[in-house]
Every structure is written in structure tokens, then in C-alpha cells.
Design goal:
Elements lengths: L22 H27 L4 H13 L8
Length: about 70
């Protein structure tokens, strides 16, 4: 997987906008994000190699993220 400017991790923030300060939490969030990026990249590459339309694959991946449910919403 090629490195790009989007490989930088964000500053993780609380709902109030404060930066998350716990190093262990930040580590878990960054590891999860890296894993998601890797899986999405692999899925895109596989689909394109199998002759799928790149735009459609991106739309499907976007739909997956959009459809995620927050079970902790109050």
C-alpha cells in the first residue's frame, strides 16, 4: 500500500472538542484506523483487479461507513 498525505492520523477529539489525552486510547484508535484503511485498500484493489468499477466500489465502501450504528447514542 502506497503512503500518502492521508496516512497521518487525526487528532482524536471528545464530543466537546477537547483532544483525547489517554495514550492507550489514542493507540487503539490509530491501530483501528490503520486496519480499516488497509482492509479498504485491499478490497478496492481486489475489486478493480476482478474488473469491477472503481467508482461503484468506493460508493459501497462509503455506504458501509455511512450505515454504521452508534450503539452508545443517548
Amino acid at each position: 500500500m502506497a503512503k500518502s498525505s492521508t496516512d497521518a492520523f487525526p487528532v482524536w477529539r471528545t464530543p466537546e472538542g477537547e483532544p483525547v489525552s489517554c495514550i492507550e486510547k489514542i493507540k487503539v484508535l490509530n491501530e483501528n484506523l490503520a486496519e480499516l484503511k488497509g482492509l479498504a485498500q485491499d478490497a478496492l484493489e481486489d475489486a478493480v483487479l476482478m474488473g469491477c468499477d472503481e467508482r461503484q466500489v468506493r460508493e459501497v465502501l462509503t455506504g458501509i461507513v455511512t450505515g454504521l450504528v452508534n450503539p452508545y447514542r443517548k
